[in-house]
Specification:
The protein is built from 5 helices and no strands. By secondary structure, it is an all-alpha fold. It is rod-shaped, with a radius of gyration of 58 Å.
């Protein structure tokens, strides 16, 4: 029986072959039949098919997880590089702002010292203070009694008033 006859479903055996050729052909047919039986058993085994599908799905998820992890790593690196660059730009801007503020402050101090004569301002403030002190004393002197007797009476009244307040406590 040839492999072509076996495929066509023929069971006729050719009598002209020698026994060794027949044994080899039988072994070949047995191997083919074993493969066919295994294929049929695999199709009939639902549990094994389900497990194979689960394993296949797990592998797909693993591959997708690896791809996602790589993509996240690339994205994180990209974001880190952007953040580093942005930080450098912001630091540079802050430094420029600080330098400008310092220069502006120094210019302002120079302008103040140039346009505001501080010694003259201080002398004017001192003169104003002297005038105020002298003026206050003059006003107090005008209001105060001029006689010694009146001054004593005022002082005695103040002492009595202080004693009354002390007695109340």
């Amino acid at each position: 029986m040839s492999s072509d006859d076996a495929k066509k479903g023929s069971t006729a055996v050719e009598p002209s072959k020698d026994p060794d050729a027949l044994r080899a052909e039988i072994a070949e047919i047995r191997a083919e039949l074993g493969d066919t039986v295994e294929a049929l058993a695999a199709k009939a085994d639902v549990k094994a098919q389900a497990q194979a599908k689960v394993d296949q799905t797990k592998e797909q998820f693993r591959e997708k997880a690896v791809q996602a992890k790589e993509q996240i790593g690339h994205t994180a690196d990209s974001l880190k590089a952007k953040a580093t660059g942005r930080t450098a730009v912001l630091r540079e801007r802050a430094e420029v702002g600080r330098v400008k503020a310092q220069a502006s402050s120094e210019r302002g101090k120079a302008a103040l010292s140039r346009y505001a004569p501080w010694p003259q301002v201080a002398a004017g403030a001192a003169a104003t203070l002297v005038v105020l002190v002298v003026g206050v004393r003059t006003v107090q002197a005008r209001r105060a009694p001029t006689t010694v007797r009146a001054r004593r009476a005022v002082a005695a009244a103040q002492v009595r008033q202080a004693l009354r307040k002390a007695g109340r406590r």
